[in-house]
Write a structure and sequence with these properties.
Length: 95
């Protein structure tokens, strides 16, 4: 994410409209191997999906076959809904 979004992320503030969060997806969470895909969250204008923080999701899988999904992805929403009080973001792994 960009420096402004990262500052808000670390301070546990909601991210601004237009913020993009990208995460590499590694096999068995082993970052020394190439990523098998990427996930992304884009903070959209109010009204995009008000019941879920106005986040758009994207999922790019490179292995075992290339697949791309984008939008209001139900599986992403279901997981991130548990983080409503943290602007739907997981910050647990930050020290």
């Amino acid at each position: 994410m960009n420096p402004e979004a990262f500052a808000d992320f670390l301070a546990k503030r909601p991210l601004a409209v237009g913020s993009i969060v990208i995460k590499e997806k590694h096999p068995a969470a082993q970052a020394e191997k190439p990523p098998q895909g990427y996930t992304m969250m884009i903070k959209r204008e109010p009204g995009y999906d008000p019941g879920h923080g106005d986040w758009e999701y994207a999922d790019v899988r490179l292995e075992p076959e290339k697949k791309v999904a984008r939008g209001k992805i139900a599986s992403c929403i279901a997981c991130h809904d548990g983080k409503k009080n943290d602007d739907y973001l997981f910050r647990d792994y930050l020290k």
